[in-house]
Specification:
Elements lengths: L1 H23 L9 E7 L4 H5 L1 H9 L2 E7 L15 E3 L3 H11 L7 E5 L2 E6 H9 L3 E5 L2 E4 L1 H9 L31 H14 L8 H16 L9 H9 L5 E5 H9 L10 E6 L1 E2 L3 E6 L5 H9 L1 H9 L3 E2 L3 H8 L14 E2 L5 H11 L7
Helix pairs in contact: 7-8, 7-14, 8-14
C-alpha cells in the first residue's frame, strides 16, 4: 500500500510540474503569453503600471515590463536589450529605428497628447492682467506665445507685470519650467513650437533660422537652472504644492489626474493653459523585434486598452469622441477640441537637436 501511495504521489507531483509549465506560459482563457520588455517615456509609466492594463494585456497574451527614459535619449541605450521602445513622439522614433537597425519598422501611434502649461491661479491672473494669457474660465486659458516670448526676450520679471504686487510669492524672471530639450520629448517639442513663433511663424529649417532663434531659446532654457530629464517629477512637485508657478506638462497628465480624482483639493489652484502655437505629440510605438510587433497594433485598436488609455488622459488617434465623453465633467480645465490652437510641424531631427544644443549653450552648427 505504501509503495502504491508513493507512486501515486510521484505521479501527482510530476503532473503538477507539467501543469505549472503548461499554464505558466498562458494568459487569461488559455491564451499563450508573450513576455516583452520595453523602454517608455515617463508620462506613460502610470498607464503600464495600472493593474487593469496588465489584465487587459494578459487577456491578449502579453506580459509587459517597462523602464523609463527621456525619449530623445532612447537611441543611446542598448536597444538590443529591449523588445520595443515607446517615445513621446515620432521624431525620436526615427532615431531609435536607425540606432537599432530596424529602419522601416512597423511603428504604431496609439494615442497622442498636446503640451500644456500648468499654472498657479495667482500666476495665471498676473499673466492675464499683463496680456500674456487669455483666460477662458476659472481653471483654463490660452498662453499667448507671441506676448509671452516677447516678455521672455526682455527678461521680464513678475514684479514688472501689472497686479503682481498682490502676490509677493511671485518673484524673479518669468519663465516656464521645462524638461531638458536634448533628452526629453516635451522639452524638445516646446523648443520646436517656440522656435516656430520666433522664426516668424515658419518651421526652422536652416542655419539662418537656427541663428535667428538661438538667442531667445537660450534665454528660455538658461533661466531655469538645472533641467529635469522627464515631465513626471516637475508635474508631481507642482501637484504637491512645491515647484515653479509655471510648469510644462502633457495634457494627459492633467486629464488623468482629473479623471481618476487623484489630486484631492490640489486642482483648485491649478490653471491649465494651452499654448496658442503647439506641436502635437503622437506617442510612437517602435517594435525592435518580432515579439512586440503585434503589441503596438493592439494598443491602438483594442477597445479595452483604448478605454484605459483615455482613463490615463491620452487621446486615442481614432477616439476623439471617447476622450471628449470621458473628460466632459472637467471641461472647466481642458480644451477637448483644441479650439484656437495652431498646430505646427516640427523641424527635422537634425535641426531640432541643433536648436536644443544651442538653447543649452552647446555647439555652433546644425
Amino acid at each position: 500500500m505504501r509503495r502504491n501511495l508513493g507512486i501515486a504521489l510521484a505521479v501527482l507531483l510530476i503532473g503538477g510540474v507539467i501543469a505549472v509549465i503548461f499554464f505558466g506560459g498562458q494568459g487569461a482563457g488559455g491564451t499563450p503569453t508573450t513576455s516583452v520588455r520595453g523602454v517608455i517615456g515617463s508620462e506613460k509609466s502610470d498607464f503600464f503600471r495600472d493593474p487593469d492594463v496588465g489584465k487587459a494585456l494578459a487577456a491578449k497574451g502579453f506580459t509587459v515590463k517597462t523602464e523609463t527614459s527621456g525619449s530623445w535619449a532612447m537611441d543611446q541605450l542598448a536597444l538590443k536589450d529591449y523588445d520595443f521602445a515607446f517615445p513621446g513622439s515620432s521624431e525620436p522614433a526615427q532615431e531609435i529605428e536607425a540606432a537599432a537597425g530596424v529602419k522601416g519598422a512597423q511603428t504604431a501611434k496609439p494615442f497622442f497628447s498636446p503640451l500644456v502649461v500648468i499654472a498657479r491661479a495667482n500666476a495665471a491672473k498676473v499673466l492675464a492682467d499683463g496680456g500674456l494669457v487669455k483666460m477662458s474660465g476659472k481653471n483654463s486659458g490660452t498662453l499667448l506665445m507671441g506676448p509671452y516670448l516677447k516678455a521672455a526676450g526682455e527678461d521680464r520679471t513678475w514684479q514688472q507685470l501689472p497686479g503682481s504686487a498682490a502676490y509677493p510669492e511671485l518673484t524673479g524672471t518669468v519663465f516656464i519650467k521645462t524638461t531638458d530639450p536634448a533628452t526629453s520629448n516635451s522639452g524638445a517639442l516646446f523648443i520646436a513650437a517656440t522656435s516656430n513663433v520666433a522664426n516668424n511663424g515658419t518651421v526652422v529649417s536652416d542655419d539662418a533660422g537656427i541663428a535667428r532663434t538661438t538667442p531667445l531659446l537660450r534665454k528660455l532654457i538658461s533661466v531655469q537652472g538645472a533641467l529635469e530629464p522627464s515631465t513626471d517629477d516637475p508635474f508631481r512637485a507642482f501637484i504637491s504644492g512645491s515647484g515653479e508657478p509655471l510648469i510644462l506638462a502633457y495634457e494627459s497628465q492633467v486629464a488623468s489626474l482629473l479623471i481618476q480624482k487623484q489630486a484631492g483639493g490640489g486642482t483648485d489652484d491649478m490653471v491649465v493653459l494651452y499654448p496658442d502655437t503647439t506641436v502635437n505629440s503622437p506617442h510612437t510605438f517602435v517594435p525592435l523585434d518580432d515579439k512586440a510587433r503585434e503589441l503596438g497594433t493592439l494598443l491602438a485598436t483594442d477597445p479595452k486598452l483604448r478605454e484605459l488609455a483615455v482613463r490615463h488622459g491620452f487621446r486615442p488617434q481614432e477616439g476623439v469622441a471617447e476622450f471628449t465623453a470621458a473628460t466632459a465633467p472637467y471641461a472647466g480645465y481642458l480644451n477637448p477640441g483644441l479650439t484656437g490652437i495652431r498646430q505646427v510641424g516640427a523641424p527635422t531631427v537634425k535641426v531640432l537637436m541643433a536648436l536644443a544644443a544651442r538653447a543649452k549653450g552647446q555647439g555652433d552648427t546644425p
